[in-house]
Amino acid sequence: MSNITTEDVQHLAQLSSISLGSSADVAALRQNLEDILHYIEQLSTLDTTGVEPTYQVTGLTNVWRPDTVDAGDVSREQLLGLAVEQADKCVKVPKVL
Fold it and tell me: How far apart are CA 64 and CA 25, in angstroms?
């Protein structure tokens, strides 16, 4: 089992840009990290031969509808009439940068 030092926890906190409170917080975080690593070590000892990788569990796939153009009941002129400004049969909007 890997031993995580207080310096390791402080280094991780610095890399993560998080502030650690008291030394009790550091000790608790150190213990949590050790527990997590211990659990991962236990998982790595399991025999997973013959186990299919699980990428998703629902079995659902994307269902796509045909992409068809539908002009609807509104003409281009009616839509342009709703615009505040127009230029060359297009809606004119302010520059956004």
Answer: 50
**Cα-atom radius of gyration of the chain, to the nearest Å?**
29
Q: Which amino acid is at 61?
A: T
- Assign residue 45 a region (left: φ > 0; alpha: ψ between -120 and 50; beta: otherwise): alpha
Count CA within 13 A, CB hemisphere, residue 78: 5
What is this structure's pTM? 0.49
- The C-alpha atoms of residue 39 and residue 33 are separated, in whole angstroms, by 10
User: pLDDT per residue over 39-90, tens digit each?
Assistant: 999 998 999 999 988 888 888 888 898 988 887 888 888 999 999 999 998 9
